[in-house]
Amino acid sequence: EMQVLESGGGLVQPGGSLRLSCAASGSTFSGYAVSWVRQAPGKGLEWVSTISANGGSTDDADSVKGRFTITRDNSKNTVYLQMDSLRAEDTAVYYCTKRRGGFQSDAFDIWGQGAVVTVSS
Amino acid sequence: SYVLTQPPSLSVAPGQTARITCGGDSIGRKSVHWYQQKPGQAPVLVLYDDSDRPSGIPERFSGSNSGNTATLTINRVEAADEADFYCQVWDRSSDHYVFGTGTKVTV
């Protein structure tokens, strides 16, 4: 069964950058869209970005549009989230999650354990 | 933007039935998914497409969706069911994914 593992989290100053990685094991990522979902401390889930199976299409939440960029390298079975111009309100656990089917309305069926991002001076 | 509203909390005795609602404009026209999240853990998909269960999810979990309300029902609630639950849809008009506000279920 597929598993995903996030890495790259940490402490960064406001205005700084960070790149998260999401690596899949046990199966290939390449046939599925992948998303990032975040959860601020004590808050609910917030969708951040999605990339299509072939990487040709992406969508971003308004709160990160123009600052975050999602990409993927299917040869490495890995999806990335480049986060620039970070703000305190971006502090959260960032989860990588795979969509279970080929439709945009499909559910997120596989989740990683999350990467902690803290934006603070 | 599309909004999904859930009750903040729900308390249920062991063995009883928990019903968690998710309200949204014409949500009955959308596919609703439900996630369970225990403290310190990642979310887990418990229902997809309104009422389908992934493998490994007990039959005690069921769902319905009509009009402006989707409902997750947990029969014969157990202590291990205590968690936060989130509904989720894809909003075609904005091309964005939307999560509900979340419901904390206390057993």
- Strand content bin of chain A: over 45%
Q: Strand tally of chain A, please?
A: 11
The largest contact between protein chains, plus residue counts on each side, is:
A-B, 23 and 28 residues
* Low-pLDDT residue intervals, each spanning 5 or more residues of chain A: none
- Hey, roughly how much beta strand do the residues of chain B contain? 35-45%
Mass-distribution shape of chain A: globular
What kind of oligomer do you see? heterodimer
Rounded Rg of chain B? 13 Å
Distance between the termini of chain A: 40 Å
Give a written overview of the molecule.
The complex is a heterodimer of chains A (121) and B (107). With 121 residues, chain A is mainly β. Chain A has strands at 3-7, 10-12, 18-25, 34-39, 45-51, 58-60, 68-73, 78-83, 92-99, 108-111, 115-119. In chain A, strands 2, 4, 5, 6, 9, 10 and 11 form a 7-stranded mixed β-sheet that branches. In chain B, 38% of the residues are buried. In chain B, the strands form 2 sheets. In chain B, strands 1, 3, 4, 7, 8 and 9 form a 6-stranded mixed β-sheet that branches. In chain B, strands 2-6-5 form a 3-stranded antiparallel β-sheet, with no helix packed on it. Chain B has strands at 9-11, 18-23, 33-37, 44-47, 61-66, 69-74, 83-91, 96-99, 103-106.
Nutshell version of this structure?
Chain A has 121 residues and is mostly beta strands. Helix content of chain A is 0%, strand content 50%.
Tags for this entry?
heterodimer, A: about 120 residues, mainly beta, 11 strands, B: about 110 residues, six-stranded mixed sheet
Secondary-structure map:
The complex is a heterodimer of chains A (121) and B (107).
Chain A: E1 3-7, E2 10-12, E3 18-25, E4 34-39, E5 45-51, E6 58-60, E7 68-73, E8 78-83, E9 92-99, E10 108-111, E11 115-119
Parallel strand pairs in A: 2-11
Antiparallel strand pairs in A: 1-3, 3-8, 4-5, 4-9, 5-6, 7-8, 9-10, 9-11
Chain B: E1 9-11, E2 18-23, E3 33-37, E4 44-47, E5 61-66, E6 69-74, E7 83-91, E8 96-99, E9 103-106
Parallel strand pairs in B: 1-9
Antiparallel strand pairs in B: 2-6, 3-4, 3-7, 5-6, 7-8, 7-9
